Amino acid sequence: MPSEISVERRLAAILAADVVGYSRLMSVDEVGTLRALKAIRRKLTDPAIASHHGRIVKTTGDGILIEFPSVVDAVACAAAIQEGMVARNADVPEDKRIIFRMGINIGDIIVDEADIHGDGVNVAARLEGLAQPGEICISGATHEQVRGKLDVSFEDMGEHSLKNIARPVRVYRITEGNHKAGTSTLVSAERGELSLPDKPSIAVLPFQNMSGDPEQEYFADGVVDDIITALSRVRSFFVIARNSSFTFKGKAVDVKQVGRQLGVAYVIDGSVRKAANRVRITAQLIDCSTGGHIWADRFDRELTDIFAVQDEVTTKIVAAMAVALTPDERQCLVRKGTLNLEAYDCLLRAREQWWRLTREGTANAEAMLARAIALDPDLSTAYAWLSYVRVQEHINGWVDDSLRSLKESYELAKKAVTLDDADPDAHNALGCAYLWLRRHELAIAEYERTIALDPNNARAHVEIGWVLHYAGRSAEAVEPINRGMRLDPLYPDVYLHILAQVYFRLGRFEEAVDLLKRRIIRKPDTDISRVLLAASYGYLGRTDDAKSQWAEALTSNPNFSLDQRRRVLPYKDPADFQQIVEGLNNAGLVE
Known about the structure:
Radius of gyration: 25 Å
Number of strands: 14
CATH superfamily of the domain at 8-177: Nucleotide cyclase, GGDEF domain
Shape: globular
CATH topology of the domain at 8-177: Alpha-Beta Plaits
Largest sheet: 8 strands, mixed
Structural class: alpha/beta
CATH class of the domain at 8-177: Alpha Beta
Distance between the termini: 52 Å
CATH architecture of the domain at 8-177: 2-Layer Sandwich
Strand content: 15-25%
């Protein structure tokens, strides 16, 4: 009988690192890049690894894998290297800087002579891909071992589904300490620490549901949504988008850290208790720099007074911040609601379902919005959100006649605007419908109207950039997309794809690759990002990588069709879509 194969296992800390934009650097100056990398290894990385008792397992052209017996040493080494790189890059032109991103995990590994394998290694590699340029991402297991032992701070990025890893992994980003990993204030691909805007900046965190009934979560969330909407319409403020604020839902937060993470000076938190026909709202305004309370109040009212309560809360927040508003800005704080509380309840439930961004959630939202409209035919916002539902059905092919859904989206948005021309949601919905109808100039006009009514509407800023891209004006699209991403610093993963599309069209394929890789880590089952990544690799001559991503795209969606995407995507010039096909052709993938 054959003898059993002995497998050596051990617990180790693994650091994975790579050079951002390596192919671009090599194409610009191959000799200079190699010389710079050798100098960095000789003077910085190798000495740091040795002093922290690490072992270099292997190197590739743009990457390195290191094993440490101590996870504290692994994190300290990574921080030292990143700090050293910031100093080395200080006098280097931005387009020639060598920037690392790193991932660290602690776990069981398999030792195969000099090499190592296993999930402990794979997770570190996935975390490295999740890190932004100049950053360090660590696993939850790593965080448990090092917190309180090093002079660094951590940002909880929540759980992430990582490719080929069975269970979600909690991820932390090292935000500050002895090193300053951030290398740029650009919000897109190279966001570091966020500086404060030049106007009063605020984030409204999710209010705690104190009703004793989990089914009332939607109501507490709806109250916060409406407060955010009212404050967002004040041009004198900088207001963080709902998406970023709600990433803190259900978490114990450090207000100072939230301020740094979102780049704001103030946060609002509170609670909502709804019982029978009464509602109690508590709210407090907190200074992020000190953690001190500036203002706090409690509001006990009849449920029928819910809109007046929301107006009162926002008015008192403004007064506490000592900001002088114009008459038009004061008017923005008074929102137009509905006298029908059941219709309002349906609208809140529908928004909560829509934000799940699933087929089931969209169908539930559709039913609730139809009910809201039946109860109050003049509720403009309900028509706007139903218009969003129809667009989602069209884009995702969730209905047999998607063109009919798109036409209905337009009619619903037009109805919303007719009912309330001052409703930002109505104009945003109409802009969205115009985009997918390929009426680009009208879409741009509607998004501009949205932003005039709601200057802090992150989604409108991103989507006007999206329209500019599809209209053949990609060079103009970067600025509004970055502006929207600054208003929504913890932006949805799809924003990475949108900006990647722009960079791809501009021929900035390395930057597109960086964005798409981060999007795939956050959404492993995406087909469209993998296809665009394959096309990007096609232009970079990375044929094997292109084929791998194409295969992964078809695994995620066996029914993926370039022809279907060609029909749906609203390019003004069909040649823009052909650029994607040609990238795939370069890799020998399609004819």
